[in-house]
Amino acid sequence: MSKIPWEKVFSFSAMDVVKLLVTALVILFVTKIQVVNDRLSALLIALPFTSLIAMVWMNVEKQSSDRIANHSEGTFWFVLPTLPMFLILPWMLRSGWGFWPALGANCLITIGCFWLTVVILRHFGTDLMPK
């Protein structure tokens, strides 16, 4: 974590404001659709909007194809440990759990799944969290 250039992370430009507004509008649009049609909203959320937007911004910023490819591959591996949440959370809610305890439990489960994914993939030569 010490290799992260925090001064770059916390410096903002006019382009960052544009990226923030466009990204926020996509999320707002999908949540507005949810009020009318929860299945359509789920379909739109299932589309990798966040990743697609991030890769578009990476391309606009002239980042290398290799960085975009690494981002895409990392996203694939990190999506997998989130998938159980989409089955466990509805089960918990339908079993009488309150929203916040169920969400908290699912966050912990997802963290465990992330850790397990990182450990398993290291054994196969894919290091998602280089030291």
UniProtKB/TrEMBL annotation:
The chain crosses the membrane at residues 12-30, 42-60, 72-93, 99-121. Keywords: Membrane, Transmembrane, Transmembrane helix. This is Peptide ABC transporter permease.
